[in-house]
Design brief:
Layout (H helix, E strand, L loop, with lengths): L3 H7 L7 E15 L6 E4 L8 H11 L6 E5 L25 E3 L5 E3 L2 H12 L2 E7 L37 H19 L1 H5 L2 E4 L12 H18 L4 E7 L7 H11 L14 E7 L3 E3 L8 E3 L2 H16 L8 E8 L18 H20 L2 E7 L17 E2 L2 E2 L1 H10 L4 E7 L5 H7 L6 E8 L5 E9 L9 E8 L7 E9 L6 H7 L8 H10 L3 E2 L4 E4 L5 E7 L4 E9 L3
Parallel strand pairs: 1-19, 2-3, 2-13, 3-6, 6-7, 7-8, 8-9, 9-12, 12-13
Antiparallel strand pairs: 1-16, 4-5, 10-11, 14-15, 16-17, 17-18, 18-24, 19-23, 20-21, 20-22, 20-24
Helix pairs in contact: 4-6, 8-9, 8-11, 9-10, 12-13
Amino acid sequence: MIPLFLVLLLNWRPACARQVNITVDASKITGNLEATTRFFGADEPNEAVYPDGEALIHDLGNLGPHQTYFRAHNLLTTCDPIDQTEPHRLKWGCTNAYTEDDSGKPIYNFTIVDEIFDTYLANGVKPYAQASFMPKALSTSPDPYTFYFDPSSEYNLIYVGWSYPPTSWEKWGELNYQWVKHCVERYGKAEVESWYWEVWNEPNIPYWNGTQEQYFTLYDYAVEGILRALPTATVGGPEVAGGPDGDWLGLFLDHTVNGQNNATGGKGAPLDFISFHAKGAPTYFDATDSSPGHLQMNMSAALHNVEDAFVVIKRYDSLNRLPVVIGEDDPDGCAACVTPEIDYRNGLIFPSYTAASFTRQIDLAVKYGINLTGQLTWAFVFDDYPFFNNFRVLATNQVNKPILNIFGMFGKMQSQRLAATSTGQYPLESVVEGSIRGESDVGVLASISDEGNKMAVMIWNYHDNALPKPDAQISFNISNAFPGWTEATLKHYRIDQSHSNAYSTWLAMGSPQDPTEQQYTQLKAAGELQMLHQPTTVKLDSGEAGLRFDLPIHAISLLVLEGVRGL
């Protein structure tokens, strides 16, 4: 039990706090709560084998009981034999998986890809393997092939030789066959069957400098090669970028159902999962000549991407129960870019946005009857960069950012969703249409284990504006919990300014770029998921219990209650 004086201290609330009532009925299961948040990815595949990258891969593989997957670009890109700085640079990576001899005969070399996948698997992470980008020897427009990107670069400079169709569709198909065949030989059939295999990235923008029909051909030949090597492989796509694109996703789905397969000549193309991307649109607001204004997030932009895709998928009766993965699901569009609009990545806005946004996407999937399987956060780490450098990453110099801890919280959620209400939560349709611009969104996501003996309840206090807001004074009540039991243990996890927040700790140190050993140890500890207070015991009265606590703006609480039968 927590001493009474400590309970009173923890429950102290300023007079200006906003009262929010949250209720959870443990007897009302609304459906399964899938482990959708265990997907991550990055442009730079080789970062996984550098020290910081491997340390983060280890952390991702140990977030909780559910399987983690990692998606990376550039797994088939060709290295520059002269440039010794690659593959360690922004928005780039290379493996030399495919080259040709002087006579044009293919040379396959999967050594670098193996090192990347070996790192994943050794740390409990499985590949979400992406067939991309085009090797230089296969590109129809090979020069220029590489590029040099810095955080302020023009984005369009990246779309060079790797983004073009192949000189030979048959060679492209055979490359995919040889790659998957090699993986089966190296890792075993059962292991490779458990991976995702997807074709390319965002073919509806210049990541693909070919036509839509050429992308369909690219897909057909890649999938034919993959399935020739492993008929039970899980294949899919098209990973289209969110936003207006005509009916790109619909035309692709129609091709897989009704089109002529360019590789086999048959009807349609195999499709085991559907993928697309969703991005928010942060900006600065109320700027004047004398003031830069303030950051304003835009959750609505991402949710529109999601809803638009779900509407398209529902049109296809034979496809609309397939697994769906939001293959890049982020508050903005470029992880390696650094502009004023991305000034949310180090602190609390990123994790609270993720909690509120991902929950609304789950709600949209329920609304449209979509089998949402993955919400992939496009954020990883860049080795040997300054501390808290504003890249969209999960860790910095092996110190976890607050954003990583929201996935630790999601990992503690149980397998079935419970009915939960909050008087401070925006309706789904309101957030889709107008984001969160009035009072803050004090929302809740609740779950219970299959055995019925463990509950996990996530509560967030989010607003789009990076401005001060009142604390939320939470009145939390549960009913029908743990029938026949008299007590429950409570673990209250928290992400706020003083918990699970290495960034605020680093700022309080004076923002050192060369921290002492003692400071670094403190930063490491501050980056771990922490509890608001020591575990305590909650008395149950016929399955009912109540708690009171304050939740600051952009903070997140996770309440984990486990039934105890008592004496």
